Amino acid sequence: MTDALRPQTIHPPFARYVHGVAVPAGHRLIATSGQLGIRADGTIPEGVEAQTELCFVAIDAILAEGGMGREDVVRVNAFVTGREHLPGYMAARDTWLEKVDPPPASTLMIVSGFARSEFVVEVEVLAAAP
């Protein structure tokens, strides 16, 4: 079990995340590479929400391979190619995390692009479990 860090002396989070997560000694860690919104057959859907959903499908598979699940995620790092993608990304992320309490720490950055121009989002996570 990790501890959510929510100092009352700083501004609260802007969305559904916590400012920090403490991982106790003795936990294993899984760090995923950034996942892109691409199906197993190589097709890439249009739209940030559909791509984000695929990022989280891949992350679920990686976590399961390591014996963990989304409830073990302590940090989400996400990258989108424009401000217009923020609402769609956040909707998909919040759906993915809706049963996770407390939510993980999270960072969302706007970047100029990815290796292929059709990608608009990339997501990586850090997970910890005993």
UniProtKB/TrEMBL annotation:
Lineage of the species this protein comes from: Bacteria, Pseudomonadati, Pseudomonadota, Alphaproteobacteria, Rhodobacterales
The name this protein goes by in its record: RidA family protein
Source taxon at top rank: Bacteria
Pfam families the UniProt entry points to: Ribonuc_L-PSP
